[in-house]
Design a protein that fits this description.
alpha+beta, Alpha-Beta Plaits
């Protein structure tokens, strides 16, 4: 399976994102975007460092969701806080070249997801555009 993840942090981002990248690489083949400093969606608070990751792994969607939740906890994430040590979201997945399936809870995609995702997903703009039709 192929998975696309969005990662972000506004509290110790270098340490938190490094941790996430190392752990994700243990799960399968990964491709990382560059790091992007982007303002918070609310417009209030410290900028986030965001990135995207493509993960090819022999895992189910539910397993990936559970694993990234565990990674967030291990990094010290406090939920319901504006200070985010590590945020990891499963954006989409595909099986054997089939049409990607997007997590509808993540739509519409914000700029802090779109910008890094365009770097690692060839044709991402067209895929996202087809969701908005």
């Amino acid at each position: 399976m192929r998975y696309w993840l969005a990662l972000g942090s506004n509290d110790q981002p270098q340490t938190s994102l490094d941790f996430a990248c190392v752990e994700l690489a243990k799960l399968g083949e990964v491709l990382f975007s560059s790091l992007y400093e982007l303002p918070p969606r609310s417009g209030v608070g410290v900028d986030y460092i965001n990135m995207a990751v493509r993960l090819d792994a022999d895992l189910t969607v539910d397993a990936v969701r559970k694993i990234i939740y565990q990674f967030e906890d291990a990094a010290g994430r406090i939920r319901k806080s504006s200070v985010i040590r590590l945020d990891m979201d499963l954006i989409a997945w595909e099986e054997s070249g089939a049409k990607p399936i997007f997590d509808t809870h993540r739509l519409p995609l914000p700029m802090d997801v779109i910008v890094p995702m365009e770097e690692i997903w060839v044709g991402f703009e067209g895929v996202v555009g087809s969701l908005m039709v």
